[in-house]
Amino acid sequence: MASLKTPTLKTPSFALSSKPRLPSAFSAAFPNTARFSPSHPQRRRFLIVTASSSSLSNKPTVLVAEKLGEAGLTLLKEFANVDCSYNLSPEELCTKISLCDALIVRSGTKVNREVFESSGGRLKVVGRAGVGIDNVDLSAATEHGCLVVNAPTANTVAAAEHGIALLAAMARNVAQADASVKAGKWQRNKYVGVSLVGKTLAVLGFGKVGSEVARRAKGLGMHVIAHDPYAPADRARAIGVELVSFDEAIATADFISLHMPLTPATNKMLNDETFAKMKKGVRIVNVARGGVIDEEALVRALDAGTVAQAALDVFSEEPPKQDSKLVQHERVTVTPHLGASTMEAQEGVAIEIAEAVVGALKGELAATAVNAPMVPAEVLTELKPYVELAEKLGRLAVQLVAGGSGVKTVKVSYASSRAPDDLDTRLLRAMITKGIIEPISSVFVNLVNADYTAKQRGLRITEERILLDGSPESPLESIQVQIANVESKFASAMSESGEIKVEGRVKDGIPHLTKVGSFEVDVSLEGSIILCRQVDQPGMIGTVGSILGEENVNVSFMSVGRVAPRKHAVMAIGVDDQPSKETLKRIGEVPAIEEFVFLKL
């Protein structure tokens, strides 16, 4: 077993503000073992950017396929030949793309695999003028060595203003009263509204737009609370907002404004179960993503009076069907996804995406890149299993955090026999950041934007190198992730010094979880994991295994770590499928089990 030497501390100098430059032309290559795709987490391919023999001595060509603000076009024309061709058919786009070095689109143009294949390798950058990238095939872009950038910040104020506009319009029945008067009616008594002053607004998702909505609502005299388990508490306090749990937010709010991304964790977050927990007569505004609301459940809540009114700018299907019960509901105000539709926001988006595209064509690394980690092929091949371990440890650690204070401080410890200069941890740090942030965000984290993304969210990641005796053939012995100043959903994950702590190592090429808090375990990080703290007694493995077997949940791995015989133990169970709520409830009801948590990888 390797022995411990004096710890050597070293933090890589990959600065948050630095802009490493690529050669003026670059290409992509992929080793057979490399796997990465932000849009398909189960298949990860890593883009390796290397110098190309060609040069960009001639002006590059940028195809602008949808209308872009003049300010953005001016920036582009200073550097490139600009072809503004709007309303192209898919066939026309595929024909043109082989003559273009960059493509700029909004949400109406589908940039699919056929587009990248038709480019013949010439297309180097796709710029999405806006936030969402649902219309760009990220996997195909990465495979074809094409960088994808977006413009996530320019429309923040516009979206916040639209949220406030819908809030006020809903409270005072503006849309309904307008339609009534235009129909020749004068129904003053029917459209009596409610005041905003003194009411409680719950902002769900306290990012850029959510915090701007909170500022404006405070100016209207509202009491503002927010739920976002990963928002810094000091940032909320600075504008007079209290961070609370999700259940407290929806139970006490008079108005709810949604500003979270659409992720597996937030999909249909507002549903029959959550509507039942809300204050009767609550009013809901959504300028985020349509999928965060179960629309059929919202109709039921409106009909039952649980929800008094709703104002919606986004829908799960856009445009919604003409006979949609939700759209046609008399107590629902709707707009056709206008959140970013102001003249100022459109110009801002145009400038932001033009700068990102020009920078990428010059060889600069853009903080708004949503793919393209840069790593040498030989380093990638060696670090591949440790990259997977790093991301999964990040995902496990963040799922153990109980909401409230927010994740602000993360410490990563690398135990290795290699000298610090022989172990580049930038990719590992990026993957830990990816694991912590991506489950609760629409941001795609990679080596390009990891430090920037962490900084934007107030997340400070420090690194420690622990130098071991032994052979330096293997790059790492173990990786440990600690999250400080938070509460845990699973108390046994807390170390003696009060941090959530998980540790893992690679065995036979497969990532394993080897420590939770102070408990030693050994479970393969595949599928998902159930952690149980229990009284150490005979039959526990069989009891829990039987419950899972009865529910047809396959157990792939099981390990028990204990402090001493017949005392306390932590059982780690690897499962291939997600157990039902009823199954997890049955596990929690086993008398000897003191706490448990289900963690999805």
From TrEMBL:
Transmembrane segments: none annotated. Keywords: Amino-acid biosynthesis, Chloroplast, NAD, Oxidoreductase, Plastid, Serine biosynthesis, Transit peptide. It comes from the Eukaryota. One of its GO terms (cellular component) is chloroplast stroma. GO terms for biological process: L-serine biosynthetic process. Pathway: Amino-acid biosynthesis; L-serine biosynthesis; L-serine from 3-phospho-D-glycerate: step 1/3. It is an enzyme of class 1 (oxidoreductase). This is D-3-phosphoglycerate dehydrogenase.
